[in-house]
Amino acid sequence: MDKSFSLAHQVYKRMEQAIITEEIPSGTELTEMGLSATYGVSRTPIREAVAMLEQEDLVESTGKKIVVLGVSKQDILDLADIRIAIEGKAMALAAKNIGAQGIKELEDILQMQQFYIEQNDSEKISKMDSEFHFTIYKHCGSRIYGKTLTDLHRKMARYREISVKSRPRAVKSGEEHQRILEAIKAHDAGQALLLGTEHATKAKQRLLEED
Q1: For residue 29, is it left (φ>0), alpha (ψ between -120 and 50) or beta?
Q2: Entry pTM
Q3: How far is residue 184 from each of residues 57, 87, 93, 123, measured CA to CA in Å?
Q4: Element (H, E) at 147
Q5: What values do phi and psi take at 19, rounded to 5?
Q6: pLDDT category, 157, cuts 50, 70, 90?
Q7: Which residues, 6+ apart, have CB-to-CB distance to 158 below 8 Å?
Q8: In what order do the strands lie in the sheet with 65-68?
Q9: Residue 170: partners with Cβ closer than 8 Å, 6 or more residues away
Q10: Which residues contact 104 (CB under 8 A, 6 or more apart)?
Q11: Cα(26)–Cα(20) distance, rounded to whole angstroms?
């Protein structure tokens, strides 16, 4: 692999995470020189990383300045609507295509999620929540559904972290995950579709309650 591309991808992932979590807030103005100093790389990988971020509409490059666009509340609502439309379908595909190893991975994740709920560790709960969904996407048998939902889920990361800080919400989410897993284990695509869609719909409702 080309070394400059590898460095660019590393910078891109670090910047993407910082922007999504608002470590770098929307409206922040950056420069290639400043980013080069921050990430300890030359300006070539910085330029390539910024180009990738522009493709995701996370930044806008205007001459010498790079303006952070971030992920707005309206962006999150739009992403939630897309998720409602396709999350259940991915779970239905997983119910059809998942094997014993995938089911074991999901069971282990839910066991850890329940442990962290009992410990009231919101950071770890959020991580296990994401792992549960990413594992379903990985085993759904569709690269398009998997990539689309993984990217979407990642962009909603900050909201998801805020949501699981509420213990009652974390508990309900865990219960919903358990029902989804039972449908997937039974290879019941229809039930997985229904539960996955309901899960995504409730997630949007919780988002609206934050207003």
Answers
A1: beta
A2: 0.83
A3: 34, 13, 9, 26
A4: helix 143-155
A5: -75, -45
A6: confident
A7: 20, 21, 22, 71
A8: 29-30, 65-68, 59-62
A9: 117, 122, 125, 164
A10: none
A11: 9
